[in-house]
Amino acid sequence: MIPLRRNIDEMKGYVPGFQPKEQDYVKLNTNENPYPPSPAVIAAIQAEVGDSLRRYPEPASILAREEAGRLYGFDPSWIIMANGSDEVLNNLIRAFAGEGEEIAYVHPSYSYYATLAEIQGARVRTFGLTPDFRIQGLPERYGGKLFFLTTPNAPLGFTFPISFIEELAERCDGMLVVDEAYADFAGGNVLGLVRSHDNVVVTRTLSKSYSLAGMRLGLAIARPEVVEALDKIRDHYNLDRLAQVAAVAALRDQEYFRECVGKIRATREWFSAGLRDLGYLVIPSEANFVFAAPPDGNGGRLYQGLFDRKILVRHFTDPLLAHGLRISMGTREEMERTLEALREIG
Ligand SMILES: *Cc1c(COP(=O)(O)O)cnc(C)c1O
């Protein structure tokens, strides 16, 4: 027996979505972007590959923070870069929730918050959703240290109204972390609340809307005091040289970004309509995926039928989700093939 901390010994560990070795799948299971990163990103990475890799990177990722600051309208002191937004979610828990203290999130959403809390030894409380996607049983005041709100929600794709998020911030004694991993595909965002409410932090990722899941790039926008605290906790060289130049180039090429996001949104609307024609229940989505349920409510059967046709989607065994599938938006051609396969499976 090795002398592990008890919470580590007892935890299961997060299981990421399936990443097949073979390349011949239509891969619609982990919400990656079907389009390549901006050519400017590839060029910037290639230019950085060479002798400079001998040297440590700039520790504060200042150029990337300046670029993000220009884009979102914040001073760089309000922005922290992360090795994937997962890193900054982890550091938020480490900064705000001590052992035995409580964090909360909505179920269903991103269960990685629970894993991170377990590592820290923090307690986890989940709030369910009402049929009209309100938070169930939310107390007048929430006294926990952190509340994680995923909006657009994953895996369901709906967004919470901004007025509700503002009210939630006001009802939280601790920090409200708004995980906007999919906000670039939505009609709005809550960056304004970071300015107006001391306890609001917004996290973003370049994995989905900027096609950089493999680069591991995320960021948080928060008051400078929060950024300073997170700065103490992170690995001092959390972004390597390639990630830093990739972040700058990606955030700068807004034309390419808008084109890709526009195509994905258009595909999402077309694909959702196609599913509805097949009699599926489709939750209107503001993300780069849709959650849809077939008329017989058997998501597992559909998952298998698609898998047999080399199309990979996400099926959750959770009883709240087992009736449907979460399907990431691929290219228009990939979604045509998926719809055809669903028609065939029947
Ligand atoms: C994908 C995802 C993340 C993780 O983003 P990375 O930057 O790739 O670490 C965080 N939150 C939600 C809700 C996500 O879907």
The end-to-end distance, rounded to whole angstroms, is: 52 Å
- What is the number of independent domains? 2
Mean pLDDT equals 97
Low-confidence stretches: none
Report on this model:
With 346 residues, the protein is of the alpha/beta class. 38% of the residues lie in helices and 14% in strands. It is built from twelve helices and twelve strands. A seven-stranded mixed beta sheet has the order 2-8-7-6-5-3-4, sandwiched between helices. The N and C termini lie far apart (52 Å). The protein binds pyridoxal-5'-phosphate. Residues 84-86, 110, 150, 154, 179, 181, 205, 207, 213, 218 line the site of pyridoxal-5'-phosphate.
Please describe the structure with a list of short key phrases separated by commas or semicolons.
Aspartate Aminotransferase, domain 1, Aspartate Aminotransferase, domain 2, alpha/beta, 14% strand, 346 residues, 3-stranded antiparallel β-sheet, globular, 2 domains, binds pyridoxal-5'-phosphate
Provide a quick synopsis of the model.
This protein has twelve helices and twelve strands.
Topology, pairings included?
Layout: H1 6-10, E1 26-27, H2 39-48, H3 62-72, E2 79-82, H4 85-96, E3 102-106, H5 112-120, E4 123-127, E5 146-150, H6 162-171, E6 175-179, H7 191-196, E7 200-205, E8 218-221, H8 224-233, H9 241-252, H10 254-277, E9 281-282, E10 289-293, H11 299-308, E11 311-312, E12 325-328, H12 332-345
Parallel strand pairs: 1-11, 3-4, 3-5, 5-6, 6-7
Antiparallel strand pairs: 2-8, 7-8, 9-10, 10-12
Helix pairs in contact: 2-9, 3-9, 4-5, 10-12
The structure holds pyridoxal-5'-phosphate.
